[in-house]
Amino acid sequence: MHRAPFLTMQSPSTSSKDSSNNVKHTADRTAHINPQRRSNSHLPGRRRKLKSSLYFAYWSAIIAFVSLSSFSSINAFSMGNRPLSQRRHEWIERSVQYYSTIMRKNTWQQTATNQLDSRSSLEEVQLIDDEIDKEFVELATKHYYARFLIKKGKLSIAEKIYRRIINELSSESDEEQCDHTKLAVSTLLLALHMQRTGDIKATRAVFLNFFRRVALFEEDEEHVRCTCSAKVLQAYALFEMKNGHSAKSLEIIHKAIKMDEQLSPVLEWKQFRDAAAGRTYSPTFSFRSRAKPSKEGGLSP
Biased-composition ranges for Low complexity (predicted)? Predict the structure, then answer.
């Protein structure tokens, strides 16, 4: 007996459930895949936005840099285009202040120089009628320029300026009164400059030139009191003492004290006490670096 195949009949509700399950499964797969596809689809747009942002930032930076450079150039141009007279007056003011400071330390009783030494403002310098004051300003600018060259490392040019000043001042004859303040200051500056370069012979020659031109002449005069010349001789005496020439140093310092009695306390210094007692003074620091000390005796190098 044949059995008829058993046919299962699904109800409409069952088929609808299966279809809904398939749709849900497909939706889940689609939901799992769609975020990546969506991100890939939006990637070109994001790149375009990033490029536009970078482009805008780049040109903004360029514009800001150009504006800042233009402002700096205009500012520098305006500073460089200051009136020549203003820059000249500023240079003179700095020169006079520098030279006046040195002159105060080495000045002698000289009315015209003391009046100008007390000036420190540009307004009192720019209108100068007196010939002595004009010479003072000229010397101030020369000395300040020499100092400027030394700071720039141009030592030989600065030395030439100092020597030219000394030669010009030495050629002026003024036998009526002691008026060697300017010459003394220039001599001290040149001697200090030569000591720094280590040239002992040149340093001694600077002191000797002043000694022969000024000190010996003033020594022959009675009751001569010149502080500026005495200070140069004091520096000369200390220079020879540091180089081991104690007898020569003692001789020079006595000549300096004759010109300015206020230097007499210097004789109480240990090196001069040893020299006066005949003891050898051993300096802790010597300028001698390349040359041997010459034989003592007299005032020649």
Answer: 11-20
